[in-house]
Amino acid sequence: MSAGEDPLVSSVDASAYTVPTDAPEGDGTLTWDSTTAVVVQVEAGGVLGTGWTYGPAACADVVRSTLAPVVVGRAALDVPAGYHAMVKALRNAGRPGIASLAVSAVDTALWDLKARLLGLPLHRLLGAVRETVPVYGSGGFTTYDDRQLVHQVEGWMGAGLPRVKIKIGESWGTNVTRDVARTRATRSLVGDDVAVFVDANGAYAPHQAVRVFDDLEPLGVSWFEEPVTSDDLDGLREVRHRVSCDVAAGEYGYDLTYFERMCAARAVDCLQIDVTRCGGITEWLRVAATAAAHHLDVSGHCAPTLHAALGAAVPNFRHLEYFHDHVRLESMLFDGTPRLVDGSLVPSPEPGNGVTLRREDADRYRAA
Questions:
Q1: Which residues have C-beta within 8 Å of that of residue 258, sequence separation ≥ 6?
Q2: Is residue 264 within a helix (H) or strand (E), and if so which, with residue range?
Q3: Averaged in consecutive runs of 10 residues, what is the pLDDT profile of the chain (368 residues)?
Q4: Closest Cα partner for 7 from 74, 86, 106, 71?
Q5: Domains in the chain and their CATH numbers?
Q6: Cβ distance 181 to 363 under 8 Å?
Q7: β-strand pairing of 133-139 with 356-357
Q8: Which residues on neighbouring strands pair with residue 50, listed in sequence order?
Q9: Closest CA to 45 of 10, 87, 18
């Protein structure tokens, strides 16, 4: 882009791709056998920007019918203006849920487009504070048998990851014996020098979560994610005050106000933010600043390719979830995904987020 140019967004396109998992996956409160990515591509000045979300194919309909009309024709460099126009357009449709996922996909595409127009890697456009991004291996699904768990954890160890997380809370918290046994097996596999995290996905009641942690504490568990539903801020705060590890939540936040309430309630030690849910990069940065005002670190939830630049650019960023499902899908659909080096993720040095949709490969999974 030459000096003085101010290209306008000329098109917004959305497609959905449903990719089967490599094995049945599940956590404390849900099971699944496929994952859908809704990919948005925006164009301005002959340059293409790419973003995406993880959610129902219906997100693509929201992009086409409601969001694209208020983004096309806007200055491509003025991403926040496009973001706020999208939010306003959703007043009657409702902001949380599918609508916010759709906004996230468009917003991440607009930021990628802006960085490419300026010829900058996205983390440099945002302003980097670190060169590599701390990550933790995430998977350890409740649907895995012992062999599958061992195979996955050994893979993380081979990649030099200093932190690993498994799912617990199996069957809505009704199989605590297996939860503890799987955590004990994970600690045995990784040894004493690797951090062990657990994620209950809101499966327990507050007092039950505390009792479960009594069995996990001797195993050195240092991160307890969503011990209770993230809608129960009083319950999260109760658990946080009664366990010795960090309590985390926030992955289901769809707007700034949700996160402010969680911070103000002193419900978590670390706030999780998902760029594919919260409204994209524009809102993610505001949420991270809100957390900083409450003296809290933030952690990127899943979608490692989209979070890599944010992890490099935000001072109060603790780590990024290197989620098995999304790592696999992103490597199947895109060229240029970030590399793991010595257990950390290295943001792409290429303009934008650095990735290119492999459309021919992706079309095999086209859902909408």
A1: none
A2: helix 256-264
A3: 81 98 97 98 98 98 98 98 98 95 98 98 98 98 98 97 98 98 98 98 98 98 98 98 98 97 98 98 98 98 98 98 98 97 96 97 95
A4: 74
A5: 9-119 (3.30.390.10), 124-357 (3.20.20.120)
A6: no
A7: unpaired
A8: 41
A9: 10
